[in-house]
Amino acid sequence: MDKRLPNLVDKLLVSYRDCGGINHIDGTNLPSKKANGRLTEDMLELLFPGFHAEACIHAKEVPALTLRTLTDLEFRLEREISKALQHRPVEGKTANQLTMDFLEALPEIRHILQTDVEATFQGDPAAQNTDEVMVAYPGIEA
Hints:
- This protein is mostly helical.
- It has helices at residues 5-19, 33-47, 62-87, 95-104, 106-123, 130-136, 138-141.
- The protein starts with a helix and ends with a helix.
């Protein structure tokens, strides 16, 4: 280890104290940006199976994959929503209720996204097909 690093640590600690910009240390953290990014990627895979996965999936795997993904999403999403509720509660709602409300809306969200994909494809002469829109266009992820 370079002998300058401990001095650099001290300087960073002073900047943390003076400038802020760090998550609620010694308290409850806000939702994690990295965790929410991974949740978004996993939701895209759930909404458009096969388009965001690294491995090829087969039709017979879709039910089990969907259940596994939903189960994992429920746990992780509830954890992030719980963090948010500690900072800004929603009267009469728990993290579990909000999580399940959101997850239960996914089939309808999927239909809405499909109309967005179709509209983008129809409106962009450069788009080769709807598959390209789902994979390459940032509007779907947004």
